[in-house]
């Protein structure tokens, strides 16, 4: 019994030993297999690295050749011009490398990476090219604009120099003419009247002797009958005025108190005192081409300021007239002589506000004419009577607005409003302090603000009648 148990124990120990041995063998085999696989991986990795390095070495000259537009055969011929051998071998080697690159995915990895990088860079390249092209276009445009401005400036400078030269020539001609006239009339220094040459004569202008007795014509008057007629008409007017109203001329010599200021056109067919049948001292007048009131016209502004602030006029009349040459010229296109003739330049500059009015007006007669001639060069003969009168009327209305917003008129209206308020306060307290209040009322009456009004009128050359355009404005309008 004991021997049997011993046998079983020995048998069990032997089985355990065999199992341990088998496990050890299995572990050893697995380790060897792992080592073999790792060695194979390392070998494959080394091979891939070697191929990658080889590819890079091969790709570098290829990239250089591609940048130069060459292939391997051409490069070989350039490097070995006397050798005809090896070209076939090189071609076969190149074909083999290309086939191996196509068959081996790992060999294609660098090419794929380059393709991906090129694809990613393509949009950026396009944006860069677009930006460069845009910058070039902008620079070309700026250059063209600068060129045009330079050419225009050069043309204007040449025109100005030509105008200056013309003025100098005209001045020289006038000087020569003046000297000739002085010699012929005997008005130089030491002439028949014994008068010294004045400053005007020194500049070549014909002058009359200071001691000449009028109306007896002397000097230049003898050469111009139309001037003699004016002196005769003046004497006739004096005689008639003294006969009908002997106090008029003496009273006007003391002071003027006109109630009307007049902004009119310089056209000789529209004399304000004649068409309105007024006497001297009734109109305070300024006239210019096109009856315009402009903020940069110091002459008109000064007339208005003096008329309102010092003369205390009650009405300002802006008078236009039909068949106005200034308006017709503004409707027509500018003359080609604007850049070369100083006279035309001045006229065109003055007419620009009327030209702007014509270009922007929405009045049907003006808009329809403008649209019908937008692609044509408009001349004076193209201007119809309808559009001509319409622009004349709109020009009067526009200048009424310009006068109304002038600071002088606005201050007058403000004083009028304040004066009405102050007058009501004074009237409410009239029962107290009668003597003192009476003194204050007299002083206020001398400083009483004027109710100033601005009107727009039109003189019709065909009928001789004046028409109110219905655009009057005032402090209580």
TrEMBL record:
Keywords: Lyase, Membrane, Metal-binding, Transmembrane, Transmembrane helix, Zinc. Its cofactor is Zn(2+). The chain crosses the membrane at residues 127-151. One of its GO terms (molecular function) is zinc ion binding. Its EC number is 4.2.1.1. InterPro entries: Carbonic_anhydrase, Carbonic_anhydrase_sf. GO terms for biological process: cellular response to carbon dioxide; cellular response to oxidative stress. SMART domains: Pro_CA. It catalyses: hydrogencarbonate + H(+) = CO2 + H2O. Signal peptide: none annotated. Residues 1-12, 28-40, 52-62 have a biased composition (Basic and acidic residues). It comes from the Eukaryota. Residues 1-119, 158-198 are annotated as: Disordered. This is carbonic anhydrase. Belongs to the beta-class carbonic anhydrase family. The keyword Ubl conjugation does not apply. The keyword Transmembrane applies. Binds 1 zinc ion per subunit.
